[in-house]
Specification:
Layout (H helix, E strand, L loop, with lengths): L6 E21 L2 E17 L4 E9 L2 H4 L7 H21 L6 H8 L3 H11 L8 H22 L45 E4 L22 H8 L3 E4 L6 H21 L6 E3 L1
Parallel strand pairs: 4-5, 5-6
Antiparallel strand pairs: 1-2, 2-3
Length: about 270
């Protein structure tokens, strides 16, 4: 049954913003020093004619979303950018008024096809992985939710309930979720504090001995400097993935340096992820 809050996409525009990193980062055996943001702006409209603009943004992320021995990082990056544009084209062609989840669900039905067609057009050696498709389309998804919230004057996270969403989760998942909506799995209020995860790249200097030449831009450069600067308790270690001995030794080295830095500031508990 139609809802007054339903929207349709009048316009979806995709643009790309070049980003140069402060210093190179290495993970998955690849070094990255620059990338692009996929920025999407959508104009949504209700049946009553009210309009609003929604925004979404996401790094291309091809190094982790499309690691490949057959397709170069530059090729993967370009293909994902094209995918982002084509996804926006799909959104503008979708004719119906509905809620953001339903709209994206129907649009995403074409993603697998796009993931094959675009690499074929570019004469790439393999199709796009599903993860790369979802990453490239995620700014559009976010922009639609943002526009929906803005045109209905509600926080987008508070617009995931039966009041705004047509189908329960069983329509998209299975019968275990019958009668449930996404608002049951999201917070109604933001947490006052959350831990900051610090990524320790495979090239990141752990100590001053690892630095050939300092950047000297008044920001920390070694791991202990970052731990003290941000009061870090959560570290995400990125490894090479193709050299087990190196990866093990890297984890041990990070732990040794982190333990010394945490002891100096009186911290007795911290965590890692990879």
């Amino acid at each position: 049954m139609p809802k007054n809050s339903d929207i349709r996409i009048k316009e979806a525009v995709c643009s790309f913003e070049p980003i140069t990193f402060r210093c190179p980062v290495k993970f998955g055996g690849r070094i990255v020093s620059k990338s692009y943001l996929i920025n999407v702006e959508v104009v949504v409209e209700t049946k009553s004619g009210k309009q609003a603009t929604g925004l979404g943004s996401m790094p291309v992320g091809n190094v982790w979303a499309w690691p490949s021995e057959k397709v170069s990082p530059d090729e993967a990056e370009k293909a994902m950018m094209v995918f982002g544009e084509r996804a926006c084209d799909l959104a503008t062609l979708f004719p119906e008024h509905s809620d953001p989840i339903d709209i994206v669900y129907h649009i995403s039905g074409e993603y697998a096809h796009l993931g094959k067609i675009i690499p074929q057009e570019m004469k790439l050696a393999e199709s796009m992985p599903e993860l790369a498709e979802l990453v490239a389309a995620s700014p559009l998804d976010a922009a639609i939710h943002d526009g929906f919230g803005r045109v209905n004057h509600v926080n987008s996270y508070n617009a995931l309930s039966k009041q705004f969403i047509h189908e329960d989760l069983s329509s998209y998942l299975d019968e275990q979720f019958k009668g449930e909506y996404l608002d049951q799995y999201t917070l109604r209020e933001p947490k006052p504090r959350m831990p900051l995860y610090h990524l320790v790249g495979a090239l990141d200097p752990l100590t001053a001995a690892d630095i050939t030449k300092r950047i000297n831009d008044k920001l920390p450069e070694t791991l202990p400097e970052w731990i003290n600067f941000n009061g870090l308790t959560h570290l995400k270690i990125k490894l090479n993935g193709d050299d087990l001995d190196w990866d093990v030794n890297r984890v041990l080295a990070v732990e040794q340096v982190a333990a010394e830095a945490q002891a100096k500031r009186g911290c007795t508990e911290w965590v890692y992820s990879t």
